[in-house]
Amino acid sequence: MKKNTEYLPILKQDLKDLDALKKNLEHSYHLCVKIGVKNKYADEELDLFENLATRFSRTLSFLINRLFKNLDIVELEDEGLLLEVLEKSRKRGIVETIDELKEMKILSDDLLQEYITKNLETLYKEVFIYTSNLLDIIETTKNYCKVKQY
Questions:
Q1: Residues 6+ apart with CB under 8 A from 50
Q2: Which region among 74-83, 93-102, 109-118, 134-143 has the lowest average model confidence (pLDDT)?
Q3: Which domains are seen in the chain, by residue range?
Q4: Which whole-number Å values give the CA distances from 49 to 18, 45, 52, 114, 148, in the listed order?
Q5: How far apart are CA 5 and CA 10, in angstroms?
Q6: Does pLDDT of 89 surpass 90?
């Protein structure tokens, strides 16, 4: 397989940055696991879920908008729209279907646009559920890059 070797150092740095994002996401996730999913949260608990939601969105955005796109560049794939980027992640075996990534992206966008605390609590529950899936996708992505020797 031909590669864009000039871009490999950038992809390698992306993988290091992804590790740092993953570490922060895991930290927030484990704090929220202790709280669990409830109907009502104390203010301090909401702060922890807010932090988790922010880290979830940041990590997902980095994975899709930076790492997956740079992976396309390294593998000499045409850069495409979001759905094309997600579909290539499926073809690489990183995800089974793109539906879950699309749902995570919609959730991330909703978090940025939601201002009412009542709705945020519902969104935080979704973030809590999807975070473990995102962590799995990160590991699959790292394994894919390791196999490809990136």
A1: 120, 124
A2: 109-118
A3: 5-147 (1.20.120)
A4: 21, 6, 5, 14, 36
A5: 10
A6: yes
CA distance 95 to 17: 20
Can you read off the two tokens belonging to residue 135? Answer: 């962590």
Cα separation of 127 and 23, whole Å? 16
This prediction's pTM = 0.93
* CB 75, CB 147: distance < 8 Å: no
Nearest CA to 104 out of 75, 146, 72, 136 is that of 136
> Residue holding tokens 């929220």?
32
Q: How many residues does the chain have?
A: 150
Please report the sign of the dihedral spanned by the C-alpha atoms of residue 10, residue 13, residue 17, residue 19.
positive
Six-digit token string for 86: 């997600």
